[in-house]
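Troubleshooting entry. Yesterday's outputs looked truncated, so today I'm pasting the complete records for two proteins to confirm everything comes through intact. If either block looks cut off, that's the bug. Protein one:
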Amino acid sequence: MNTLTARKMNNQIKALVSSAIFDVFNDPDFGLKLSAKAKKRLSLSSKNNKTISFSQIKKKYL
């Protein structure tokens, strides 16, 4: 592997790790637990197929 390729890969890895750390620290719900009520609602919506896929949400809002 040449030096330029190694540098590019190293920079990409640094950017990926930095992005992951940034995401964890900027998640306001990080470390919080779901309440019993929230778990029940998620379970019911999952059973009733009342969930919305990520791709549908993206289409609606992006």
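Protein two, checking that the full record survives here as well:
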Amino acid sequence: MNAKSILLGVLIGGITSAATAIILAPKSGRELRHDIASKSGEASVILKELAYNATDLFQSVQVLGTEGTTLLKDLSTDIKESVANWNEEMEPEKARLKDEIKDMQKTISDLEKNTKKKTKKESN
């Protein structure tokens, strides 16, 4: 349900309630006409205030939506830049770690070969 529907429902409900109360109250014709004129003036003021408040609310929501969109775009850009910078800074570390892993694999391979040779010599 959107704000326009709610506002319209409140407005119609208020006018209907006021009209019902005025019409059903036991008064003379002159008093009734006076009350209707008085209440219609009050209703007019209330309607103007509601219209102003609804317009103000609508504009605030539009501004908030625009600002939120801008902030999200900026945040997205900042995050992408941060990740790109981090990846760039980590490249030398990645290369160093790959080299160390290759060295470790070579060392393990050499140890396995030496162990096999020693085992063969000892068994002979």
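Both blocks look complete. Sanity check on protein two: The CA atoms of residues 31 and 37 lie 10 Å apart.
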